[in-house]
């Protein structure tokens, strides 16, 4: 569940952080149930235990660590954590759990049995061009809105990849601490077309 090549991984948190967060029997039981799924419907108790475990790995405990949405809000809005270092959304987490259960239960769990695994389409994947691709989330993407929340504090004109905005493929904006969007990484104005050197600026010939 903590990540592998065939499932997906948690951005900003590695296996060491997850190992340190693993401290209760409730979590151990949740891992066992995840590895021995009867079907693709995990019980609410198991999902809640795994949500708390993931939140704890990201450093969120107490009431904020009981819900992914609350944990994400706490880390991003209160602590100022960047978007790529907060837990996944509920929709992403649900698909990740399905892929984890499929990999551990249907693939590894049947390694010693001559039995065909179930179709991946019910376990967080879809068939695209003859290959099974992950379904990243059951929720609509909000990335286009989140982009505006990225900002930098560069003092060197934002010309290198040290700029947080440039590194994430974004233009600097007014919210950036120093450049205020007026830098080497500012958005190009599509209306400012290059002048035509053959254009007669004097009008009539």
Structural topology:
Layout: E1 3-4, E2 8-9, H1 15-21, H2 25-35, H3 44-57, H4 68-78, H5 90-107, E3 125-128, E4 131-134, H6 143-146, H7 164-167
Antiparallel strand pairs: 1-2, 3-4
Helix pairs in contact: 1-3, 2-3
If you had to describe this structure to a student in words, what would you say it looks like?
It comes from Frankliniella fusca. This is 1-deoxypentalenic acid 11-beta-hydroxylase. By secondary structure, the protein is mainly alpha-helical. Helices cover 34% and strands 6% of the residues. It contains seven helices and four strands. The protein has helices spanning 15-21, 25-35, 44-57, 68-78, 90-107, 143-146, 164-167, and strands at residues 3-4, 8-9, 125-128, 131-134. The chain has a two-stranded antiparallel sheet with strand order 1-2. A two-stranded antiparallel ribbon has the order 3-4. β1 and β2 (8-9) form a beta hairpin. The longest helix is centred in the middle third of the chain and has 18 residues, at 90-107. It is globular, with a radius of gyration of 23 Å. It starts with a strand and ends in a 38-residue tail after the last helix.
Largest sheet: 2 strands, antiparallel
Which parts are unreliable, with pLDDT below 50 for 5 consecutive residues or more? 190-205
What is the mean pLDDT? Answer: 83
Spatial strand order of the main sheet: 1-2
SSE arrangement, N to C: EEHHHHHEEHH
Total number of beta strands: 4
Shape: globular
Structural class per helix/strand content?
mainly alpha
Distance from N terminus to C terminus (CA atoms, Å) equals 75 Å
Rg measurement, Å = 23 Å
Beta percentage is: 5-15%
DSSP summary: helix tally: 7
How much helical structure, as a percent, in the residues? 25-40%
